[in-house]
Specification:
The chain is mainly α. It is built from eight helices and no strands. The longest helix has 19 residues. The protein starts with a helix and ends with a helix.
């Protein structure tokens, strides 16, 4: 089975005698999909401590995005049919923009102020592109 070929030797050896790929998949899912409170806490701490420092805007943004993606993967999926999910996503986008701007080097203070004066606020991706252009 291809799944066993992609797993580590230790993991693969423990699943050699399972009857189907589905059985292996379900076993792996049960073992590794449980969200660790410690991992979630650790990732949130890393996210809130992250600052650009001497990194480029692009490197800083991709580190930040990596934390956002990891947190999204650790959180349960929300199923909503009432339409409130659009409001939640808008709030999440604002939070990401603020997190991105908070960690920027102080040399971007003026640009940060200009972005926050825009109406409506730019998306975090738009802000990233504008700051990346300014950096060059």
């Amino acid at each position: 089975m291809w799944i066993l070929n992609t797993a580590s030797d230790e993991l693969g050896n423990s699943m050699n005698y399972m009857g189907s790929a589905l059985t292996v998949w379900n076993e792996l899912s049960e073992r590794f999909s449980a969200v660790s409170g410690h991992k979630y806490y650790e990732t949130q701490c890393d996210l809130f401590k992250l600052e650009q420092g001497n990194d480029s805007v692009e490197f800083y943004f991709h580190k930040l995005k990596g934390y956002w993606d990891e947190i999204r993967a650790l959180e349960p999926t929300v199923k909503c049919t009432c339409g409130a999910i659009k409001y939640w996503e808008l709030q999440l986008e604002k939070t990401k923009l603020i997190q991105f701007l908070m960690g920027l080097h102080s040399s971007y203070t003026a640009a940060r102020g200009q972005l926050l004066m825009m109406s409506p606020w730019p998306t975090v991706n738009q802000a990233f592109m504008l700051l990346k252009q300014e950096e060059k």
